[in-house]
Specification:
There is one protein chain. This protein has 334 residues and is of the alpha+beta class. The chain has 2 domains: 5-176, Alpha-Beta Plaits (2-Layer Sandwich); 209-293, Methyltransferase, Methionine Synthase (B12-binding Domains), Chain A, domain 1. The chain has 12 helices and 8 strands. The protein has helices at residues 5-17, 40-45, 47-55, 79-87, 116-129, 178-206, 217-232, 238-251, 256-266, 270-273, 278-290, 293-328; strands at 21-27, 33-39, 59-64, 71-77, 94-99, 102-108, 143-144, 166-167. The strands form 2 sheets. It has a 4-stranded antiparallel sheet. Helix 8 runs antiparallel to helix 9, helix 8 crosses helix 11 and helix 8 (238-251) runs parallel beside helix 12 (293-328). It is elongated, with a radius of gyration of 35 Å. 32% of the residues are buried. Residues 40-174 form the RepB-like DNA primase domain. InterPro entries: RepB-like_DNA_primase_dom (IPR039459), RepB/MobA-like_C (IPR054366). Keywords: Plasmid. Residues 190-215, 305-314 have a biased composition (Basic and acidic residues).
Length: 334
């Protein structure tokens, strides 16, 4: 039997989306959603049933199952917005006309799956640029399945007929400017995370209380930084501050590992200030701290004290033995 136009439209869309499995959602007139996870072939095989449900007034939707294959959905676009997307190098992999002159665009911005957070922000960026629906901008949003009708009452014509959902350009190709968009959004996420980290570290330093000696390396670092800020201002060289605080911590008895942990967790703007080589920076700073003359002098003094304490303990032990010997008195022969 020759495939009908509904079959051809659905196949065109599914092939352009280019994923191994799909989630198909069937929402009835009461708003209940039935979701099935099917392969492309199973979706096409199930079209007769989907048509029957559609004829009863249900709307039929589709989205990639589990992984998004680098696809994001932009909803509620007009022809002008689509033209601007193409001019900007963001030609959709598939364009679906959901009602007359109203479109959804599946845009492939990358050839590999995106994280949910990144995919959602990319979708939001595209919706903002091209006046799409911001409420549909998330990594798991359903789009309509082509070849069936849009059953929403407001789209019916004067004769009560629902418009068909049409598949237009559906090359399935990655957008030329997709990677650039991805880099821009990813950098924005990194910048936002860095700003949050900076603010978190700043507040922790401002509110730092004097810790118990040798108890909490990170809190000890923050309290030391707070004191340096009060003395030199917040514009001081932070790398120098790391070294100075590290030296003070070593002289309080903290180990090299504890000092490294404190710098890693509390040094201002470390993720951005030393981006890409934070661990190397921390290791070099700790090495310099432990090689400091002040630390060496303190270690020698500690060793001297330990040696004196050991000698004193030995002296006292000898004295106790002598006292016990005297208290026993002379041994009597038989």
């Amino acid at each position: 039997m020759k495939p009908d136009r509904s079959y051809l439209a659905a196949r065109r869309q599914l092939e352009a989306m280019g994923v191994d499995s799909f989630e198909v959602g069937v929402r009835d007139q009461a708003g209940r959603m039935l979701i099935r996870t099917w392969s492309k072939d199973k979706v096409l095989e199930s079209l007769p049933w989907l048509k029957r449900e559609n004829a009863k007034g249900a709307d039929v939707y589709v989205r990639p199952a589990e992984v998004n294959a680098g696809l994001v959905l932009v909803d509620d676009l007009n022809r002008g917005a689509l033209a601007r997307m193409k001019a900007d190098g963001l030609t959709p992999a598939s364009v679906i006309e959901t009602s007359p002159h109203n479109f959804q665009a599946w845009v492939r911005v990358y050839d590999k799956p995106l994280s949910p957070e990144l995919a959602t922000e990319v979708a939001a960026e595209l919706a903002s640029r091209y006046d799409g629906d911001p409420n549909s901008a998330d990594w798991r949003h359903f789009g309509r399945l082509a070849g069936l009708t849009n059953a929403k009452p407001q789209h019916r014509d004067a004769n009560g007929r629902s418009p068909y959902v049409l598949a237009h350009e559906s090359s399935g190709k990655q957008a030329e400017a997709g990677r650039a968009l991805l880099r821009q959004v990813a950098q924005r996420q990194l910048d936002r995370a860095a700003a949050t980290e900076r603010e978190t570290r700043r507040k922790a330093t401002e509110t730092a209380q004097e810790p118990r000696k040798g108890y909490d390396p990170t809190q000890t670092y923050r309290y030391g930084l707070k004191a340096l800020y009060a003395r030199f201002g917040t514009s001081m060289d932070v790398s120098k501050a790391d070294y100075m605080i590290g030296v003070d911590m070593a002289r309080l008895g903290f180990s090299a590992d504890q000092i490294g942990q404190a710098i890693e967790e509390a040094s201002p703007e470390l993720p951005t200030r030393k981006a890409g080589h934070e661990a190397d920076y921390v290791a070099r700073t700790v090495k310099a701290v432990m090689a400091s003359p002040k630390v060496a002098e303190w270690q020698q003094a500690q060793q001297k004290q330990a040696d004196e304490a050991q000698r004193e303990a030995q002296r006292q032990q000898v004295q106790r033995q002598q006292v016990r010997q005297r208290n026993r008195g002379p041994r009597l022969g038989m």
